[in-house]
Amino acid sequence: MNTDAKSVEIRDKFLMHIDRMFILAGVPEEQAKQDAQVVLQMESAMAKSAMDIVKRRDPKYLDNEMDLAAVKQLTPSFKWDLYLESIHAPASSTYIVTSPDFFRAIEQLIKGEPLNHWKAYLKWQLLSGLANAAGEDLVNEDFAFNGQVLFGAKQIQPLWRRCIQSEDRDIGEALGQTYAARYFPPESKQRMLNMVKNIEAALAADIDSMDWMSPETKKQADIKLAAQLDKIGYPDHWRDYSALEIRADNHLANIERSAAFEVDRQMKKIGKPLDRTEWGMTPPTVNAYEDPQTNTINFPAGILQPPLFDATKDDVVNYAAAGAVIGHETIHGYDDQGRKFDEKGNLRDWWTADDAKAYDKRGDCIADEYTEKIPELGVKQNGRLTQGENTADNGGIHLALAALQQDLKQRGQSLDGKDADGITGWQRFFLAYANVWCSSWTPETMRTAVLSDPHPLDRYRVNNVLGNMPEFAKAFGCRKGQPMVHENACRVW
């Protein structure tokens, strides 16, 4: 929807991309050009009706419970009974519609767009979704826009890596079982679990020390923390893929069968008790997450590798790197989104009114600090969009440092000593943390991320966080008024 020159340029290239994809799929050139315009027109209509990206961060706006009759009233032209029957969905008394206005807009599109427009739009969705599993021409055209235009990639990844990514997406726990056995031994899992428990203890102490929280709210926070489930490395029970047929002769068919298998697996969960032990990421994934609806923190084996976790390094380095990630995910349960869920994962307000106001005041400080223009990209970072991640970053490293200090104290050690290079333990801690975020991003990737990603750019995950920490200033002799000493240091936890 943006009208700046760069947005217009990208939109024009998107239109040409759709046109070329249609031609590669055998659509005559003149028809392809018309169909591309239709796709852009319909995508634009959907974009206008989509919920604002910042508003979507508040779970109360997404929790719209309806029965099937109410869903049908939103989009009476859509054959819901046929759809639910086609995907073998069992009957349910409740449906959650995350964005009712979007469904109302879809109803207007169904009534307003002719059938041939919907055929073009759905053909585009099929082509775009399966381009990476199709012929080489479609693969390259898909990369030309999604890889080069949006993210500035110079060359497409080699075939073997794309195949592994496809396997990870479709049968990730089969791949993950081998990965975990090879790269994440029991010793590493136990060391990680010890760090998790120490960091949770640091959060418990942090909660008890807060002068802006009432005893009533503190008690609820303690209950939630005690109920948190910690998942490290890989699932306790591996997924059974025996009903899925994988053959060596047709990659596209494997993807289609895998998708059908997963839809069927998800449908069978409806009406069944919640399994909190199930993972939402595969073991080789280089990422981690907190799930507020199950009250779990999850650290796949893929992220528990150097430089984030290194079994050959000491606790100072590992608490700064992996420990900060553990703290980050733990804090997500108490960020501006996570704090609205209780110990059972229910959307329930367990805060007193005064405590909620005090929390929001601290959250506003974080949001304002990260709202800033990025001149070299021509865009502005929205601190409201990244507030949850920023809260978790600032709180996570604080917890990691507190847990490390307590761990060292119990062993009669501290961070004051220097190593052979004259670097103190304090300095090593902050250097190890910063090293985790060393990265090289193309301008295109950064611009796309700032406009759409709830995570800030990596440099802010270091400089803004450490600039809020008096421990960092003391470790490196930074003085008031210097860039890395923030006058209004923000932190919620």
Task: Please provide a written account of the structure.
The chain has helices at residues 5-24, 29-49, 68-74, 80-86, 100-112, 115-130, 136-151, 159-183, 186-209, 215-227, 251-267, 315-332, 353-369, 387-410, 425-436, 443-452, 458-467, 470-476, and strands at residues 65-66, 95-96, 229-233, 289-291, 296-300, 372-374, 379-381. By secondary structure, the protein is mostly helical. It has a 3-stranded mixed β-sheet with strand order 3-5-4, covered by helices on one side. The chain has a two-stranded antiparallel sheet with strand order 1-2. Strands 6-7 form a two-stranded antiparallel sheet. The model has no long low-confidence stretch (mean pLDDT 97).
Rg on CA atoms, Å = 25 Å
Order of strands in the sheet with most strands: 3-5-4
Q: Judging from the principal axes of the Cα atoms, what is the shape? A: globular
CATH topology of the largest domain: Collagenase (Catalytic Domain)
- Helical amount among residues, as a percent range? 55-70%
The unreliable regions are: none
Largest sheet: 3 strands, mixed
Q: Assign the CATH superfamily of the largest domain.
A: Collagenase (Catalytic Domain)
**Span between N and C termini?**
37 Å
Question: What is the element string, with H for helices and E for strands?
Answer: HHEHHEHHHHHHEHEEHHEEHHHHH
CATH architectural category of the largest domain: 3-Layer(aba) Sandwich
- Quaternary structure type: single chain
Give the tally of structural domains: 2
Summed up, the helix count is 18
Class from helix and strand fractions: mainly alpha
Work out the number of β strands: 7
Mean pLDDT: 97
CATH class term of the largest domain: Alpha Beta
